[in-house]
Amino acid sequence: MASSRFLISSTTLGSSAASFTFSSIPSGYTDLCLKVSARGDATTVNYFRVTFNGDSSTIYSDTEIQADGTTGGIASGRDTNSTRLNFIGLESNGYTANTFSSAEMYFPNYTSTTSKPSSYFGVMENNATTAYMGVDAGLYRNSIALTSVTLTPASGNFAASSTFTLYGLKSS
Amino acid sequence: MATSTEIAIATTTLGSSASSITFSSIPSSYTDLRLVFTYKGATTTCYYYARLNGTASQNVCGQTVLKGNGSTASSSRLTSSDLYFSNGNATTTIPFMEQVDFFNYAGSTYKTMLYQGSGDQNGSGEVRRGVALFPSTSAINSIAFYSSGDDFAAGTTMTLYGIL
To answer: Which residues are CB-contacts of A71 (< 8 A; sequence separation ≥ 6)?
Structure first.
């Protein structure tokens, strides 16, 4: 049986990096699935910032649920007309050493001629008093195909050993 | 060579608006199913419900959902209901995306489904995550989606994957 999920590329950082980009994404798939295991070197609560095709115009938006493990520690918020998608859940260097967050982002119909919705689920667990989980709906209001995806920490850099993996999925 | 574990069973892209989309004769040879789709309303906002195995009315299902609307996070339940999954209101211009996992769909126990709905609309919209129960010991052999409020617009795409 022919497979529908194909590995496009996977990279583990040997040293810290200010951002990571999947570039020259081939157009021969239906959807993209991005999986991340990452840690930031900043000490504050951190976010993944996502842009496409090097585009930093204000055509990004997202709606989120975030939870921090405390009583009442759940909330919903949104970004509107933003220059990037903003997803909570990047493990911070202020938390337990050697812990990395896990996240999955899904981009359906990434070559379509309509706006691009996306799905995000990210978690960090460090057996400490604070950890975050984020669930997001993202939107990139552009009708062009996605040819690159760039992830940037909201603060600081990605730490060494952070891993970024991109899969392509074919519907037929 | 490693065995392929995620296989596209069928895909549908609507060439014109339609009130339903059905996957039938689903083979029982996989472990789980995953459905991924994006949809818009044909002329106005559209949401949907699903029915399994061709049953005309299925007010037997239960669901628990976590929802965020950009200002409030909330949770709710449905019991003795049709399957609404994320049931997000898609507009005519911005697609709403859904992913539904059907675990052990061919097994002889009740069927549990995990769903993820993402429908940001730049200043409105929502994100939903939830679980649904179809209390049947029969294998799932068909999945039908029915639009409500409006037809599914042309360009609505649904793909069913089998996972080994």
So the answer is: none
Find, among A80, A146, A138, A141, the residue nearest to A105 by Cα.
A138
Q: Which among B8, B40, B120 is the nearest to A170, CB-wise? A: B8
Report the complex ipTM.
0.91
Alpha carbon distance A139, B120 (integer Å): 6
Q: Which residues contact B114 (CB under 8 A, 6 or more apart)?
A: B100, B101, B103, B129, B130, B131
Which residue, among B1, B97, B164, would best test binding to A if mutated, counting the most A CBs under 10 Å from its CB? Answer: B97
- CA-closest candidate to residue A103, choices A83, A125, A84: A125
**What would the pLDDT profile of B102-123 be if each residue is shown by its tens digit?**
999 999 999 999 999 999 999 9
Nearest Cα residue in chain B from A75? B73
Q: Which helix (H) or strand (E) holds A125?
A: none
Dist CA A85 CA A70 (whole Å): 25
Phi/psi region, residue B30 (left: phi>0; alpha: psi -120 to 50; beta: rest), is beta
Closest partner residue to B71 (CB to CB) among A76, A119, A171 is A76
pTM for this predicted structure: 0.94
Residues in chain A: 172
